[in-house]
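Let's practice the habit of predicting before peeking. Look at the sequence and jot down your guess about where helices and strands might fall. Then scroll down.
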Amino acid sequence: MQKKYLTKFTLVQLKIFIPLHLHLEIMRQYLETNGIQLNQHRRLISITFNDLNIIDITDKTNFETLPAYDFYHGGYSRKENENDSSNGLDYWRYYTFFVTDEDRKVIGMNIRQNGLLDGQMIDPINDDEDDIKRELDLKLAGLVLTRGTVAAFNDTYQRIEITDSHDWAEDFGRWNANRGNSAVEWRDAVIVKNSKRIEKEDINLGDYLYVLRDDEDALIIFVEEN
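Done guessing? Here is the structure:
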């Protein structure tokens, strides 16, 4: 039996900042790999983090590492990003995937302007909040949770090959085996092991992974705890 996790992740849209806390609007609340539950809520919550680096992955050719101080005091809240064009929302937003511990302290966070997933351009194009929420819901519903053992790394394409891979079938409440190996791209992922954010270089052949992915793009990678 695989080890069970207490760590959870939240898919959210950045809204407002206050000192030491961050208020967020949840698009789909969390997944706990011990229960494999995807619960959908829309409400404001408060999370905390201390001296943590946040990664801005908006420009995929140049990721920017933001110390917590720069994140708090930079122009990352919605009201600080007014749209000066005639298209899209009045204010452009940053969207995020992040991982918290049981106390809601953030372990790792990636942010992207104007879209939750790579290639999305939501805020500059769409000015209807309901349409945006529907688009996000459809995208989130299409995410796949995969588990398996690391078989190989492809540094050229920034991919991890996973053998003995299974995908979680939410409708049936079970893991379905894949016919072949799965490959996921780690570039945009928050990678967590032992309740700490790690780098791809800390993943080893033979490690057991749980990967939340959009097609081949990994968003969250949990490395099984030692």
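How did you do? Residues 129-141 form the longest helix (13 residues).
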